[in-house]
Design goal:
19 helices; TAT_signal; D-Maltodextrin-Binding Protein, domain 2; 451 residues
């Protein structure tokens, strides 16, 4: 890569770095010749990947792995700083919302040649996962390590008190006109300060003690754990050219009517206001305090909900929408190699190992996430069952093929910068859902200018 090109790439990445983040201290000069620096952000996964590194070294004594873990926000800031200062880790955990930009800025090493030379079998992974890491340029940038979908986590003591059965929860339907049986259940779970439920006469929506439905935020451009499944099951899709969006549809009537209905739950008192939901106490903590009847979330949160000992938590399917299906976003993480690594062979050996059944079995038995390798799933199900979870609601959309991808494009940061305040304005009742058409025009202008 020539100097002028490198300068351009650094300039393109510099805007993503938080000013307060210092440079990384793991430059190439400080590394052993066979030592791979590997980063991840989830502390819950550190033990199982430490075990993976041990087994990897036993099988490949010429290589070793040094693992570094940082919290989500610091992780990405430090990573971009590392790209600019050329001190990034050799291998790192990547997210489908981030890697498109990194690939576009030539910061990721394509692995197509490695996959071909080792005749790697990509059919061992859950359907759709491996191809999720083929970029817009047609090159492959990672091997999948896990996957996730969404469900409702519900407080079984509250549902029992409301006379709502598990069967009712798992057969919910919804529509944007009256909310279907889903809204009926949410109303029933909502209780005001005098003990009156949302479906009872005299309910005081201005003094709610327990909301039937909790949420974390307005959802930004993806709505992964807030509104994505409602919109998808209403027949909406994010963009033309999914998952590599070339033209977005946030102004589509199917989307705006979905958001209008969802926002209406606040008006009726069944869901907290945006200000309440984002007041500084996260959605799981509020759920754990018994203030929400149920909350939507992803499978990566199973461990967090398991830690809420003061409530008995169970899982329920997402509701069936107007299209006659229960739709869920299916996302996942992958391990990717920094383009600037000075040890590509060692880095590939580590990535290849992490994508193998041997490593994925270690991941599965930890009972933290769902492994990408299909044959490792029984061990994961057993591990979750041992912790008291029946994870069937997470698995059913995948088995039925009723899943959709996380929206991806190299300009996702810019798209989110438009859609986050736009969605917040709507959910805060500062703007009407129809205003999302204007935001959508701005998003498409960004994509058009970048093409």
């Amino acid at each position: 890569m020539n100097i002028s090109r490198r300068t351009i790439l650094k300039a393109g990445l510099a805007g993503l770095v938080a000013p307060a983040v210092a440079g990384c201290n793991n430059g190439a000069a400080s590394r052993g010749t066979g030592e791979v620096i590997y980063w991840l952000w989830d502390s819950a996964q550190l033990p199982m990947y430490t075990e993976c590194a041990k087994v990897f070294h036993e099988q490949n004594p010429q290589y070793s792995v040094k693992i570094e873990q940082y919290g989500w926000d610091d992780y990405w800031s430090k990573l971009v700083t590392g790209f600019i200062s050329e001190t990034a880790p050799d291998v790192f955990t990547s997210h489908s919302s981030r890697y498109p930009l990194f690939a576009a800025k030539d910061q990721l090493l394509p692995i197509d040649e490695y996959v071909a030379q080792d005749n790697l079998d990509l059919t061992i992974y859950q359907p759709r996962l491996a191809d999720r890491w083929i970029g817009a340029d047609g090159k492959r940038y990672g091997l999948p390590k896990d996957w996730d979908t969404e469900v409702y986590f519900y407080n079984s003591a509250l549902t029992e008190a409301a006379g709502i059965s598990a069967e009712q929860l798992n057969s919910m339907t919804w529509n944007p006109q009256d909310g279907g049986t889903f809204e009926q259940i949410v109303a029933r779970l909502t209780v005001d300060s005098k003990g009156r439920r949302g479906d009872q006469s005299g309910f005081d929506k201005k003094n709610v003690a327990v909301y039937g439905l909790g949420f974390a935020d307005a959802g930004g451009s993806d709505g992964q754990t807030s509104w994505s499944w409602y919109a998808a099951s209403n027949g909406w899709k994010y963009s033309e050219g999914e998952p590599w969006g070339t033209k977005f549809f946030y102004g589509d009537p199917k989307f705006t009517e979905t958001i209008a209905w969802w926002r209406g739950l606040i008006t009726k008192g069944y869901m907290p206001t945006l200000a309440q939901a984002t007041s500084g106490v996260d959605v799981t903590t509020t759920f754990g305090a018994g203030k929400y009847g149920m909350t939507p979330n992803g499978s990566w949160m199973l461990g967090t909900y398991a830690g809420l000992k003061q409530v008995k938590t169970k899982l329920a399917r997402l509701p069936q929408g107007p299209v006659g299906k229960r739709m869920s976003m299916m996302n996942g993480l992958a391990d990717t190699i920094w383009a600037g690594t000075t040890r590509p062979e060692a880095s590939w050996a580590w990535v290849k190992f992490l994508g193998s059944k041997t490593a994925q079995d270690i991941v599965a038995k930890a009972g933290v996430v769902f492994p990408a390798v299909t044959e490792s799933m029984p061990a994961a199900k057993a591990a979750f069952a041992a912790d008291g979870w029946d994870v069937t609601p997470f698995l059913e959309p995948v088995e039925a093929g009723d899943v959709f991808a996380y929206p991806a494009n190299p300009n996702s940061a810019d798209v989110n910068a438009v859609m986050t305040p736009a969605m917040e304005s709507v959910l805060a009742f500062e703007k009407d859902p129809s205003s999302l058409a204007e935001a959508n025009d701005e998003v498409n202008q960004i994509l058009s200018a970048a093409s």
